[in-house]
Amino acid sequence: MVSLRIFVAFVLVVMANLCLAKEFIVGDELGWTIGYDYNAWAKGKIFHVGDTLVFQYPVGAHNVFKVNATSFQNCIVPPPDQALITGNDTIVLASPGKKWYICGVGKHCETGGQKLAITVQSGAGAPQVAPGPSPEGSY
Known about the structure:
Its main location: membrane. InterPro entries: Cupredoxin, Phytocyanin-like, Phytocyanin_dom. Residues 22-122 form the Phytocyanin domain. It is built from three helices and seven strands. It is an alpha/beta fold. The strands form two sheets. A four-stranded mixed beta sheet has the order 2-7-6-4. A three-stranded mixed beta sheet has the order 1-3-5, with no helix packed on it. The longest helix is centred in the N-terminal third of the chain and has 19 residues, at 2-20.
């Protein structure tokens, strides 16, 4: 019986996190483009595990690479097979911590400022479910 209560509590927490997940259109109505201040866009936003980033851009004009801090700072573009290229790329934020994204087309990252750094928080702020009563004395 205790196992069932724990399972139900776990399911409720997971469902609450899914319901609270947000979708962020990177750059809002301008989307993923050059000459946009993505630091200002991200400022004040709180990203949680389970949220999604959507990078919208004209196909062929841009792409998206997930990179590390060094590649972000220096605009080092990973191998082409790692690029997201659909023009409507969705990334689920699956783990907490710093995340970095750049455009690998031409000098879009270096001179166009087409790069985004965010910090992902560990949970969606879902309400915690209190454990059920102790099984002792409840037979």
